[in-house]
């Protein structure tokens, strides 16, 4: 199975029939794989490249600078810089822990996170030594938020829902933008089976937008393989593409009609050094986690609950669900 590509221009600028065709194709992709490659959307190429460039600049700052805006681990949305090993995606799924067989496992990545502009409940943290960083990331946040509303509108249409049924659940804004850096490392560190750049997991929000560099390493679950732990690589193909994946809240809302896309980041094709050591090059990416309003329920919507398909998830707010999962990610009790 390969990742399918959907041209989004037909939904944005097409006739009503073209909009319906694109919406149906998009939903079919998300139902079958949980992932799709989207082209001709409204995130400018300069924004995509700018996010990757800002990521490289931020993560080359001295640790003494990054630690000034360090994220405090706990059951709350992440803000600022998270060091390597702080987030432990392996703990989100029982099969990861079973594979580790009681041994300590970890992610080999660091990241920067920011939430809505002017968030008073969970204030953002910005590096003072990069004055152009905050305005660019904030502008990118707004662009991605707007694009996600367009995608969710298409999903509504593809699912046969009333217009606005899902988008009304996405306010006030609670989405998060993340810049990621995976440092270079030896391949044998991953061959031992205790470390990955990111262990198999699903995201917590509704959908996720991903922009990646050319290094590779992203893998998505191959649901057609007929066996667990089967993944297919997803490399960047064109400059203006973005990868869209479904996340937990959409799975919960649709009562498993659309399942969250399982994915991991592991070893790309290693670069062979002159000393014969397989090295994994550094990798940068940026993701946008589109989320429901914090007080919005992420329990199954009535449209997806029937006698034959009873509610598969308990009712809780989007913030409660995020807090539940963030406790696990950070190993925080209570």
How is this structure best described in words?
This protein is an alpha+beta fold and 334 residues long. The chain has one domain: Jelly Rolls, CATH 2.60.120.330. It has nine helices and 17 strands. It has an eight-stranded mixed sheet. A four-stranded antiparallel sheet has the order 9-14-11-12, with no helix packed on it. β15 and β16 form a beta hairpin. α2 packs across α6 and α3 crosses α6. The longest helix is centred in the middle third of the chain and has 27 residues. The N and C termini lie far apart (41 Å). The mean pLDDT is 91.
Main attributes?
9 helices; 8-stranded mixed sheet; 30% helix; single chain; Jelly Rolls; Iron/ascorbate family oxidoreductase; 334 residues
């Amino acid at each position: 199975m390969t990742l399918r590509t959907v041209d989004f221009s037909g939904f944005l600028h097409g006739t009503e029939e073209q909009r319906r065709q694109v919406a149906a194709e998009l939903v079919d992709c998300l139902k079958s794989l949980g992932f799709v490659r989207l082209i001709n959307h409204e995130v400018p190429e300069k924004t995509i490249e700018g996010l990757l460039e800002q990521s490289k600049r931020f993560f080359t700052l001295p640790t003494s600078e990054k630690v000034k805006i360090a994220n405090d681990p706990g059951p709350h949305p992440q803000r600022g810089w998270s060091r390597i090993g702080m987030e432990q995606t392996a703990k989100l799924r029982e099969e990861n822990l079973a594979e580790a067989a009681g041994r300590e496992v970890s992610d080999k990545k660091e990241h920067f996170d920011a939430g809505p502009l002017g968030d008073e409940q969970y204030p953002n943290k910005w590096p003072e030594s990069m004055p152009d960083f905050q305005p660019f990331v904030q502008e990118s946040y707004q662009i991605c938020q707007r694009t996600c509303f367009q995608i969710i509108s298409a999903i509504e249409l593809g699912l046969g829902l009333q217009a606005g049924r899902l988008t009304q659940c996405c306010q006030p804004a609670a989405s998060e933008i993340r810049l990621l850096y995976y440092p270079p490392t030896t391949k044998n560190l991953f061959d031992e089976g205790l470390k990955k750049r990111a262990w198999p997991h699903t995201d917590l929000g509704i959908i996720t937008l991903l922009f990646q560099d050319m290094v590779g390493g992203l893998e998505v679950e191959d649901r057609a393989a007929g066996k667990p732990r089967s993944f297919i690589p997803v490399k960047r193909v064109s400059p203006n593409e973005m990868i869209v994946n479904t996340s937990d809240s959409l799975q919960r809302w649709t009562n498993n009609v659309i399942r969250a896309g399982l994915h991991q980041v592991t070893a790309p094709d290693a670069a062979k050094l002159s000393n014969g050591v397989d090295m994994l090059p550094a990798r940068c990416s940026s993701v946008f986690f589109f989320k429901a309003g914090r007080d919005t329920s992420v329990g199954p919507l009535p449209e997806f609950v029937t006698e034959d398909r009873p509610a598969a998830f308990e009712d809780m707010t989007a913030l409660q669900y995020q807090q539940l999962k963030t406790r696990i990610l950070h190993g925080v009790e209570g």
